[in-house]
Description:
Structural class: mainly alpha
Strand content: 5-15%
Number of helices: 8
Number of domains: 2
Strand order of the largest sheet: 1-4
Distance between the termini: 37 Å
Shape: globular
Order of helices and strands: HHEEEEHHHHHH
Helix content: 55-70%
Amino acid sequence: MPLPDLALYAALAYIYQWSSRAGSFWMIMARLPATLVHELSHLITALLLSGRPTGFSLWPKRNGDAWQLGSVSCSNATWYNTFPVAMSPILLNLPLAWWLHGQSGIWFKVAAFAFLAGSIPSWQDLKVALSSLVGAAAWLAVIIGAVSHREAVQLAAYNILNLLR
């Protein structure tokens, strides 16, 4: 990784960590971009998998000593959509962060950091993802299968895209 990129990521990580000690206002502001992409990934996945989103919030709420920086609520949580909706921040934002990092320009790098920070699942995300063990096992099998047969998945995606042209 080029030194300027490394320096930028280190500075952004420092600001991200410093903000938690600088007070609630600065913590909320520094984490807003990551919270936005995190919650949008839940919302988009819920829409695509018939989760029927009923609420979306980026308004911070204090829960005891902690802050809840955003939320998405759904009315149709099922065995087949609970895991991907709950884990969508890591499933969507991590690949997007990797892609953004590969682009040139400082704003792509800043966006890559926001997507990387927004890819971290919360404890609530993990709890919801594992609430349906059947769904979690099924989706993990799909993910493991796709990763272990990456070339076949890429070829199938290429063929599908060619059919759509």
